[in-house]
Structure formats: C-alpha cells, structure tokens
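Entry 0007
Protein: DNA-binding response regulator
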Amino acid sequence: MLVVDDQPLFRAGLVALLNAAPGMTVVGEAADGESAVCLVESSAPDVVLMDIRMPRMTGMAALERIVASGSPARVLVLTTFDLDEYVYEALRLGAAGFVLKESEPARLLAAITAVASGEMQFSPTVMSRLVAAYLRDDVAAAPCAPPGLDELTDREREVLRLVGTGITNADIASRLTVTEGTVKTHLNRVMTKLRLTSRAQAVVMAYESGLVTPQLVARTA
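Output (structure tokens):
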C-alpha cells in the first residue's frame, strides 16, 4: 500500500490503521502527487490510496501519470462530499474506486481489499454523486453507441450494464444466477470487443453509451 495525503495527522492515522490490518503493509507514504508518482515506480505498491487535492501535483494529475506509466498499481481515490466534480473524471482517468474520508475503518479496509483483488469500489454515497455528475450537461451528452457495441451479445450487454453500476463480479454473478468465473469471461469478451483496457473504462463506456441510467443505479443500489 502507498498512502498519499497532504495532511500529516490524517496520513499517519491511515498508515497506522493499514499496518495493523491483517495482510496489509504500507510500503510508502507521500504528501503530494509528484512524490506519489515517484514512489509508485520505486516501491511498486499493489494499491495507492490517494487524496485529490494536494500541493505540487494534484491527485488527479498523479492518477493520470500512474495509469499512463503502465503501472499495475490500482488507485483508490479518497474523496469528500465537496469533490463531486472530480468523481467522474477520476473514473475516466482510471481510478479503481472511491472511498469517503468519513468512512468507518472497516469500510475502508473492505474497499482496499476489493480493489486489490481487481474489483472496483464505490460507496453508495459516491455512486449517487457519480449519477448526479452524469445528469449534468457537461457529462450527460446524448448517448453515443461506441464501435463494437452492436457486436455484444445480450448477456454481454447485461454484464456491462451491471459493471457500470459499480457492483462487484460476485454481486453480478448472484443477480444473473451464474458463476463469478462466467461473469469474468463475459467481461473479458466485452473489453476485447470494445477495445477497453480497464474496468474503469468499462464503467465510463456503460454511462456514455446510455446502458447505465440513474434509474438502473437506484434499482441495483
């Protein structure tokens, strides 16, 4: 784990919490995005827990640099209620999930575990903020079917739609009454046909193509 936050006391608390949790080890900490990018390269963390607003280089800029570098590190963004405008863009850039700074320790640890295992993680509150961003004119342009969408089978479309709501593969498997392995197979085929490289891109695609609507998110929450 790499912990990135410009508030020393908050960062120290996170480091202590994570080091005390079974199976988790903090390999580094940083107070700004520039240091975070360097530490990702030198310490190769599995998960980066990163704030958005920081000096020198913001969390958004650092996220973009980390993803562009090809690092396998998955970035879990720390967010607060007043950062709604960043949620959708962070997802577009490749964030693996979002967790509120006000979250209970157990929820934070569960989010980190989910992200480390390859899932995406959204709290219900953050998902509602994502829907709100989608409804704004600057995000909710007319849905546009991307190349390859017509090649998806009905089941592949259904899997993509559910991925777009932010739920896990296990939850999707339960809803569709199939195995988790089957869900992964369908999702891999979706990503191949749509030329996607990450689950985050699949979520964005589901929104931009109109497969995900606020009503669907409300039903799956």
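Curator remark: The longest strand covers residues 74-79. The chain has two domains: 2-135, 149-220.
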